[in-house]
Amino acid sequence: MQKQKIPYINREISWLSFNDRVLQEASDLSTPLIERLKFLGIFSNNRDEFYRVRVATINRLTKLGKKAIAIYGDDPKELLQKMQKKVIEQQNRFEAIYQQLLKQLAKENVFIINEKQLNKTQQHFVKDYFHKEVISTLFPIMVDEHKPFPYMKDKYGYLFIRLITDDPKKKNKYALIEIPSKVTTRFVSLPHERNKTFIILLDDVIRFNVHELFEGFGYAVKEIINIKLTRDAELDIDSDVSKSMLEKISKSVKDRKKGLPVRFVYDSAMSKEMLGFIMKKLGMDKKDNAIPGGRYHNFKDFIRFPSVGDKKLIFNHPRPLNHKYLHNIHTNILPVIKERDVLLHYPYHTFDHIITLLREASIDATVESIKITLYRVADSSKIANSLINAIKNGKKVTVLVELQARFDEENNIYWANKLQEEGAHVIYGVPGLKVHSKLFLITTRVNGRELKYAHIGTGNFNEKTARIYTDFSLLTADKNITSEISQVFDFYANNFKTGTFKHLAVAPFFMRQTFVNLIDHEIANAKHGKKAYMILKMNSLVDNEMIKKLYEASQAGVEITLIIRGICSLVTEVANFSDNIKAYSIVDKYLEHTRVFIFGNNGDEKIFITSADWMSRNLDSRSEVAVPIYHPEVKKQIKDIINIQLSGNTKVRILDRLQQNIYKKPKAGERKIRVQDEIYNYLKKDKETYLKRISHLKQNLRP
């Protein structure tokens, strides 16, 4: 009898389904209008990265022929065709949604207009703006049959211009102009008219005036088309052992900018003559991921679309809460952590607590040292500046900077050099591993006794992303945890010291086996007729072995609930495999980023938070840390938050085997539960209840 094939959704196809959920938000009538525009920007930004990394990888695999199928599991050429078909279908929906949004915004007196729609007053303004702000940033490159096509940078938009002349001594030409959206705003506000807001894109400001650049040379503008090229962004890291990791990554980042093209996007209105010319010059054909699009590209800029018009057009972002135990801004944080574990949940709680804690540690006389891992930090990082302040105050500061954090390499190189110049001991990652853990360890000494405080989180030490990503930070002085975090930092400093861990689950050495053992325990409980369940929340579930294990658990009767934001290669609703598995995805105003694993454990639940998804790269090729939650109050809080997520019936999708992304809707008589608003209200009420109790106790203590 032939062995049944394990159900598995290709990760690239599943990722495209995730981006479909982002596109759903752009079309969802319950999402504020300007936020819907921003979701188009997020969708576009996601797709750019997908091409730069994933499609580039599949392109590389096509060169391996039949070997690629053995390595990857799918025929890369067939997969590229499937992906391109899906991308074009999504692009058509994208354009339709954008046109709908323009009409709906107009009803709210917000008009996004092009150069053909300007009235006389607006024309004068645009001409004046062009001369004051734009013309000095434009540097046209002339193109003809005899010259190689100019180099086009990744992540930039360009205007490709067809020029004609009446001069018989001259030939018609083309020109290429980079749209300077890095140095001036993409969205130009025009003068208000009778409570109406008008915005024109920088692209169209240039279109309206570009003839001025060529008239003096006897050329007229015949056609202007928006184009964009996406390049392979995978780093090829030099294997030369004589070079430092810093040198290797620096060189690789420079080389990335010359990566091979993986996608060419053009306005579908482009004439056949122009399209044929540029495709020939680029050495591409329509099979080479040439994607016809609309009038505008680089839609990622719409993430920063200005907040104009009525307040109802944008999300209501309530002010982040101070944690109930840190409500008094004059309270020192270390003594609070000494008494109890503290769980911060961003963006509902303020990230300022982390910055305050590091600032406090930098001036506290009892603090001897601070050790921290940095993966993605803000451009002008308050975290990094807090560490510099600690160095200046005489603290020993050790910083592991992961130089291979994709697309943040240059920023991380800058901060690594800066911290080293200031006197920090900088560790440039771990050879062969990417350090993805979110840790810091503060060591104090009081009356000769050493006491350590630790942070274990699910997200980066980044004050900007902490406003829009949902993440957990556990602050603890539990010796069982802090002593093992200390071992992790020992490993970073001395890679032969892998450590012994009884509490933490640490990748790449022990995490996979820890979770396999916990699943096996649930399987054993189910087989003995005991209640057995798992609730697993993560960004991506891709690892083949872990998926097989979940199928095995489902077959044994373990109830499994998945909350997966992004890629889910596990297939639900498959008889004899996933009968007991349900999967959901939440896409809303904040990006879901927490990873939480809950195991029933025969009534004594085990809960972990971690920086790791269940992907092979996280479990086998990265340094990751999962921490068990021991404090009863923190344990209850995480479970309450997960239960809120499971009760959600707004902005929640069901992940079915057909990847239809069907919304989970309220049942008859059930109130609407929007998860992210509900969690904020839960934490706010919890804080208010605590403060009332404290106030009541103080009143009772008064004489």
Overview of the molecule:
Helix 2 runs antiparallel to helix 4 and helix 5 packs across helix 6. The N and C termini lie far apart (84 Å). With 703 residues, this protein is an alpha/beta fold. It contains 19 helices and 27 strands. The longest helix is centred in the first third of the chain and has 32 residues. Helix 9 links the parallel strand 8 and strand 9. The chain is globular. Strands 14, 18, 19, 20, 21, 23, 24, 25, 26 and 27 form a ten-stranded mixed sheet that branches. About 2% of the residues have low confidence.
β-strand amount: 15-25%
Please tell me how large the radius of gyration is: 28 Å
**Termini distance?**
84 Å
Provide the residue-averaged pLDDT.
91
- Low-confidence stretches are 235-246
Q: How many beta-strand segments?
A: 27
The biggest beta sheet is recorded as: 10 strands, mixed
Please tell me what the overall shape is. Answer: globular
Q: How many helices in DSSP terms?
A: 19
User: Into which percent range does the helicity of residues fall?
Assistant: 25-40%
How would you name the oligomeric state of the polypeptide chains in this document? single chain
Class computed from helices, strands and strand pairing = alpha/beta
How do you describe this structure in short?
The protein has 703 residues and is an alpha/beta fold. It is 39% helix and 21% strand.
